Each structure stands twice: as structure tokens, then as C-alpha cells.
Amino acid sequence: MRGRLSRRWGLPRLSVRFRILTTILLVTAIGMTVAGATAFFVQRERTLQDLDDRLLSRVEAARFVVTGESATGSGDGEGTVVARADGTVPATTADALEAVLARVVPGRNESSLGIVGGEPTFVPGVELAIHLERDPAFVSRVVDEVSDGSVRLGTALSTEGHIRYIAAPVTVAGDVPGIYVTAVDITAELDELYAAFTTYTVVALGALVAVGLVGWFVAGRLLSPLRQLRAAASRITASERHERIPVLGRDDVSDLTETVNDMLDRLDAAMTGQRQLLDDVRHELKTPITIVRGHLELLDAANVDEVESTRTLAIDELDRMTGLVDDIESLAETTGVPSSAVAVEVARFTADVFAKAEGYVDHEWTLAESAATTVLIDPARITQAWLQLVDNAAKYSPAGSMIELGSSELDGAVEFWVRDAGPGIPADARERIFERFGRVDAGRGIRGSGLGLAIVTAIAAAHGGRVSLETGEHGSRFGIVVPGGPSAPTRAIDSHSTTGKVAP
Ligand code: ADP
Fold it and tell me: According to the per-residue pLDDT averaged within each range, which of 42-56, 235-249, 262-276 is highest?
């Protein structure tokens, strides 16, 4: 159905293996990306926070150099570094900044600058990664920013690169204002992080390839029984239908294989049965056709008596063929069809069938026993089967002989039976008569299709039951046994009663 739909909508036909693999890879890739990206951004935030802490500690160090205090105790405004008024150290802004730049040494990827009177004046005496003094725009920006006397922490895209900086005004009473600037190269600081995550990406891609290869192999192995199943199913045709699929392992796929094998068994049996039926029907129809044809061929049309007798014979044979066709139809309707069961009161049902049996007026009928229980059956079908047994009993036992009919409870089952005083069934025919067209001595000269008991068997089987037979030299007892009905005592019936009423 799916295949048809895909074809109808023009969707590409993708194998299950491919779809399993794509799903696994997609989920793995999404998982790795989310984990990697989260770790990257958390780490980046932490690095940037560390940079700010470092820059603030530089200003604290500068403050210590200028004021001799480690906190902003002598702060002027927003943390401005102010020299002590006692004039001990330093005497000028330039002195203060020179001392700071000489003593507060910038770390890796860092640089500092001392600005006096708006001009970059001092740089540290060590090798620097960046030169802030080379970017006049940055210098004037910093001068502007701290003009209100506050310490500024910011990010700038200078000619020296992407930097994070801190600028603190340094004031010595009575001198020009100064600024201490220290900055760190963000790109260089984050380079390690980028390198680590480049490695992560390479490893993740490698892992994805490994997952893909293992997934492809495992999916292929798991699906191989399905491929075998498909190959075997396409090999099995009407003529090559005996092949079965090997059951490998013990899992869902092996269960499926067993189910398919069971289905093939049933199909095989159904096809064999069908072929057998066709053979049987062909064989059975051949006889009347041959008889009628033979008589018509040899018929002397001028002989009125012969025409009359041939006409009777032909009609007789055609009637037999009609009966045969009716029985085949009945058998086809019954075989394999599950019965639509209803709860039936067995005693009442027995009385109804008994009343019908009494229509065979050539015999003396007796309702011998009636089970006082209910049973789940399809009453129309069981009546059909029971009347078939009645018909056989009437057909094969001498006219005027007594035939008993009854229903009994067996262990967890109910039996509908008919007993006659006929010739009984010889031992070698007791199985054959239940097969299609199985008869004793060509029906002992009595007309029949040989399908009656096959129909009874099919109806019993559709109820989950069976046909029973007790027979000897004189008489036979045929029964239809269907499961169900709680065990309950049966009541004997007046053996000569013909009304089916329960005896007191
Ligand atoms: P048919 O009666 O059309 O031949 P059935 O399937 O009903 O076919 O019966 C099969 C054969 O079993 C009959 O030909 C007959 O020889 C034998 N048979 C069936 N019922 C009885 C019976 N009650 N007594 C003796 N023989 C019977």
C-alpha cells in the first residue's frame, strides 16, 4: 500500500536500511551539534568573564602603585586613581603613570598605555602583542570616555584587532589628567577555544562516519532475514509452492518468518484441496455425460419405446448432475467459513430437527435422548448437517426400520446423532466415506453424490468440532460433536414418542 502510494505521489523508493541509517545519523548529528554548541558558548562566556576579571585586577594593581592602597579608599568619583595629597608619591601625573607602566606588567596577549594630557606617553618596557598607541582613534575614544572621571570597561575594534579594554583616569592634584589603559586581544584569547572546538568538530565528524559504517553493517545484518523472506516469497509460485523460508534465530523477524510459513502451508493446503476438488468433480461429471452420450449415440430415433426410455435415462442422469452441482455448491459454501454462532437451547433444537426427520415417512422415528443444555452453534448449518445424517439413515436402512435421533452431552461437548438399523459401514470404508465422493461399493446401488458426509464434516469443523461414527454389522450411529455447553444431566425421552416432548 505504501509502495503504491509512493509510486502514485512520485516519491523516491528508499530502502528500510537507508531510512534507519539516515535517522540514526540525523539524531546523532543533532545531539553532537547541540552538545558542542552549548559547551562552546558556555566556555566562551567564561573566557570573556576571565578577561574582564584580569583587566579589573590590572587597574587594582595600578591603583596600588599610585596610592599605596589596594582598594578604592581614596577614590575620586567612579574609582579614579588619585595620588595621595601628602605629596610623598608621585609628584606628577606623568610620574604616576610611568610608575604604573613600569610595575604593572601586561600578560600574554595584553598591552597597556599611559595617556598624559590626551597624548599617549608611556608604554610598558616589554615586548607587546598589540600597540594601543598606534591607533589614534582608539586613544581619542578612550580620552572621551573617561572625561567624566569614571573607569570604563569596553570592547573595541581597533587597528590592532578586536580588543577588550579598561581605562582608568589617573589624577595628581594640580597636574594635567592622565589615563591608564590596559587591553587584551580577544581574538588571540579565544583562539585556544576555537582550536579546541575545531578538534571537537573533526572528532565528531569521525564519530559520525564510524556510527554510519557500524549502523549500515548492523542494519544490513538485522534486515537480511527480511531480504531472504522477500527472495523466497518471490520464488514461491503456484507451481513451486512447496518451498519454505528458513527460520533463523529467535526474534521478531523469525516470528514473522514462521507466520509467513504457516500462511504458505494454509495456501498450499487450500490450493491442493481446490485441485483435488476439480479432479474429483471432473471425474464424477464424466460418468453421467458418458452414459447420456452413449445412449444418444446408439438411439434409434424411429423406435418410440427406445426414445422414451433414453429420454427417462437422460433426465435421470441430468437430475443426478444437478444434485451433484448443488452438493458441490453447498460444500464450497461450508468449507472454511466460520459459523456465526448463537446460543441454542439443545432440547428445543433437537425437537425441531426431529419434527423435520419425521417427514421421511418410510421409517419409524424415535427421539431417544435430548440434552438439557445450551450450546453456541450456527443452527441453520447444524440443522443442514443433522438432516444429512437423517437422509443417509433413511436412504441406507430398510424401509419401515426404526431410526433413533437424539442429542447428548459429552465431556464439555454436545453431540447431535442419528442411529439406524442399516447395513453399517465396513472397516475399510470408515475413513473414506467422510472424504469427497467417498462411497461404499458405489453407494450400494443407492443414488448419491458421495458429498453428503464431506459437507457434514466441513460444518462440524467450522464449529471447531468433529463427526463421530459407531458402526457394526447391523446399523450405524453417526454424530456431530461440537464443543461447548456445561455438563448437565441428560433426560431420557419416551423412546416411542414422536412429538419430542420430554417424558415426565
Ligand atoms: P452419498 O450418500 O451421496 O453416497 P455420503 O457422503 O452421504 O454420500 O455417504 C458416503 C457413503 O457412506 C455412502 O455412499 C454410503 O455408502 C455410506 N453411508 C453413509 N451413511 C450411511 C448409513 N447411515 N448407513 C450405511 N452406509 C452409509
Answer: 42-56
Q: Is the CB of 390 under 6 A from ligand 1?
A: no
SS3 content of the chain, % helix, strand, coil (to 5): 55, 15, 30
Looking only at the bridges linking them, the beta strands covering 364-370 and 402-410 are parallel
448 lines ligand 1 (CB under 6 A): yes
- Is 450 touching ligand 1 by the criterion CB < 6 Å? yes
The Cα 333–Cα 339 span in angstroms is 11
Nearest to 162, CA basis, from 127, 144, 188: 188
Of 7-11, 261-265, 327-331, 391-395, the one with minimum mean pLDDT is: 7-11
| Per-residue pLDDT tens digits for 69-80 | 655 444 333 445
Dist CA 41 CA 50 (whole Å): 14
Please state, in angstroms and rounded to a whole number, the distance separating the CA atoms of residues 339 and 302.
56
**Half-sphere exposure for 395 (CA within 13 Å, toward CB):** 15
What's the grid cell of residue 482? 461440537
Reported residue count of the chain is 504
**DSSP assignment letter at 184:** E
Output the pTM of the full model. Answer: 0.51
| Dihedral in degrees, nearest 10, Cα atoms 126, 130, 136, 142 | -90
CA distance 441 to 289: 21
Backbone angles phi, psi at 369, to 5 degrees: -155, 150
For 365-413, what is each residue's pLDDT tens digit?
A: 999 999 999 999 999 889 999 999 999 999 999 999 999 999 999 888 9
**Pocket mutation for ligand 1, best pick of 284, 404, 453, 471 (most atoms within 8 Å of C-beta):** 453
Residue 323 Cβ contacting ligand 1 at under 6 Å:
no
